[in-house]
Amino acid sequence: MIENTASEPDFGPQFRCGECDWVGHYIGDFVAHRDPKASIAEERKAPSFPVRELTYWLDGDKKVTELKEQIMLELERDPLWRVSDHPNLTLAETRERAMKKIRRLADQATSRPLEETMVRMSIISVVDPGFWTRFGVHFGLFFGALQGQASPAQLAYWMEKGAFTMQGVTGCFGMTELGHGSNVAGLETIATFDPNTDEFIVHSPTITATKWWIGGAAHTATHCAVYAQLLVGGKRYGTKTFVVQLRDTQTFELMPGVNIGDLGKKMGRDQIDNGWIRFTHVRIPRSHMLMKHTKVMRSGEVIEPPLAQLAYGALIQGRVSMVGDSANVAKRALTIATRYASVRRQFSDGTPGALESKLIDYPIHQHRLLPLMAQTFAMIFAAREMNTSYMQLMSQLNELGDSKGAAVDAAIKNLKETHATSAGLKAFCTWMCLNIIDQCRQSLGGHGYSAYTGLSQAYSDFAVHCTWEGDNTILTLQCGRYLVATALDALKGQPLPENLAYLKDAIKSGMVLETKPFSGKSAAEVSSLAALKAAWSSVAANAIVNAVRDFKAGVAKGLSKDNAYEFSSASRLHAARMHTYTYLLHRFVAQVEQSPAALRPILTLLAQLFGAHSAVQHSGEFLQAGFYSGAQIEALKVFVNDACAQIRKDAVPLTDAFDYSDYIINSPLGRYDGDVYEKYFELVTSLNPQKPVPYFDSLIRPLLERTNESQPGPELEIDQE
To answer: Among 233, 328, 421, 657, which residue's CB has the most CB atoms within a 10 Å radius?
Structure first.
């Protein structure tokens, strides 16, 4: 129906949509945007898979989904957990609100079942990552250090002191120093044993020994798990962990010899009160050294475990959790970008009166977002497998006791593999997630730059993941070192771990790979899961062979073992990245094979897109390995185009399966109902009401009313020398 109305601005004649009863306007030869709610509703009409079933599969089961939804609703209805106004809070307001949440959650976290707490924290890590960090510093890092490093008697002591419930003890984690981060063995803080008093003297001997970036130190912590060099009888025994009291628990005054400062404003996560700590000959009881592994007796005798590396098993947990966190944050970013792309209309075919096209209908926009969707699913499944591996490792380590021989050897082998895999995945997935956030932000156009649309702050908050718990480049190199060492061991007859089974042919040939070109030619053949698994295995094997070659070349030059590893660092880094791509694809395929039949087609397509798109992005590696030819790479590109077009039909239902409520999404552009423009306008105007300009009289008026008269200056004599 077309009619004119006197009450409307004169945009031209109206039209009424027969589908949604929405009234729009012709503007010249163009049509104003169609109702965005109707646009997104179209996307949900005919998904190719049961959305709810996929949600249950991703969450683990129906009970976990229902628990997650219950927790999301609780948070949404709690005024303390308001998140829409975060961009407008000051640093002080941000920290104070975080502390109020800690007070609320401390009792809840320690009184509810562990499963519920873990689900709650995984949701909170997306809703309020800064708070999650502040809360996690105590429960994850400080208390985690006690669990992993304290003897049973020591753990019981600190539990009684209130370390678990935050009743009497609030902890922080003192590892990083101003001059040292990833090199834990090089930390400068010293803990010297004094046999006369049965105490340790904790001291920061240099400015670079100052503990730095210590979350919770500035305002909150009463105690700190301090990593320091153990010095007994003039001999160093490496970095150990000591519990040092920072503040009097009654007055909150700093303890003698302890100096603390605030590190202030950061790029993101301002909820956490990062600070610096300096120790000046601070004395602590000998029993405050955590002695699950290395022990210092009253006599000064130092008893070290036969395998000191067992102490580092507990440190893997943070890296494992960050793989899952990467997946969860990526899910939110993709939900915002995909839903917005399904309602945002831009340009038309030029036909008068034609609707503008949805962003998601443009092939280039599909290429922009849908490979990221495949990457996110790959991270979801990798996180699931990595968590299972970690739990099995910790169970194995806890059951060792005083075991020796084969049991310990098996545990050490598993520890090394889990450490290397978690290091590679932590680096790869956090880099991948940060890129996903930014690509999704850019896909929002100018609106992506707004603090109120959810992704600019998400980028700032997530960026630290690429640095803490181990710098990503360093962790990738550690993974690469493991790959080279494992290959060298295999050459000596040691069995290959399952994740490196693709090296079998290389080992048999003495690390000389024979080129085995793939015979298939069509897009369907080169993009099959079997072909992609073989292709990526070939590329990863080739990269490891090259890294081993460079390591051996370093040794041949007369370099020490460590220097030979440094000599091969570039090829080690590359090998680790190719291996991690391969690991992700293999784990993705394994999960597809275990998935319910109704979900298998869409998950298969996503797995293929992950493998094929990643291969196209690294096509030179496949050509070098001799697996794919140039023509086959072109066939892969054809498949990627077709896969994006197919997945586009399910793009919104796939994000719906992530099952994040609008509260968790916290972006008007990612609303479930598609009402993006009304809600965006309401949010911005409600948080930024019109007020008189506070500096009008002091700055703007003088600028506007200034005169052009100038004071006479000295004459320039150009005719005189």
So the answer is: 421
Q: Is 191 in contact with 242 (CB distance < 8 Å)?
A: yes
Tell me the CA distances in angstroms from 667 to 68, 395, 458, 566, one per residue in order: 20, 41, 11, 45
Tally the residues of the chain.
721
CA–CA distance, 570 with 476 (Å, rounded to integer): 10
Helices (H) and strands (E) in the chain, counts: 25, 14
In terms of Cα–Cα distance, which of 437, 445, 439, 438 is closest to 340? 445
Does the pLDDT at position 713 exceed 80? no
Helices of type H across 60-176:
62-77, 91-111, 114-127, 129-136, 143-149, 152-160
Max intra-chain CA distance, the chain: 99
Query: Which of 178-192, 370-384, 428-442, 585-599 is least confident?
Result: 178-192
CA distance 301 to 299: 6
Question: At residue 438, does pLDDT exceed 50?
Answer: yes
Strand-pair category, 275-279 with 211-214: antiparallel
pLDDT category at 311 given cuts 50, 70, 90 is low
Beta-carbon count within 10 A of 432 CB: 21
Angstrom distance (rounded) from CA 338 to CA 665: 12
> Residue 213: beta bridge partners?
none
DSSP state letter for 355: P
**Other Cβ atoms closer than 10 A to 550:** 19
Q: Residue 194 pLDDT > 80, yes or no?
A: yes
245 touches 254 (CB < 8 A): no
The question of whether 469 is a catalytic residue gets the answer yes
Model pLDDT, residue 512: 81
Spatial CB neighbours of 494, under 8 Å, sequence gap ≥ 6: 486
**Closest Cα partner for 138 from 316, 279, 272?**
272
Phi/psi for 621 (5° steps) reads -65, -40
Instruction: Return the C-alpha torsion angle 635, 382, 579, 411, nearest 10.
Output: -160
Cβ neighbours, 10 Å, residue 302: 16
Q: Rounding to the nearest 10 degrees, give the CA dihedral for residues 363, 369, 373, 378.
A: 100
Please state the rounded mean pLDDT for residues 531-544: 97
For 252-308, the pLDDT digits (tens) are: 999 999 999 999 999 999 999 999 999 999 999 999 999 998 999 999 999 987 666
Residue 29's pLDDT band, with cuts at 50, 70 and 90, is very low
CB distance 447 to 680 below 8 Å = yes
For residues 653 and 335, the answer to whether their CB atoms sit within 8 Å is: no
Residue bearing tokens 């949010």: 683
In the numeric block, the tokens 């397509």 are attached to: 605
Residue 493's CB is within 10 A of a number of other CB atoms, namely 7
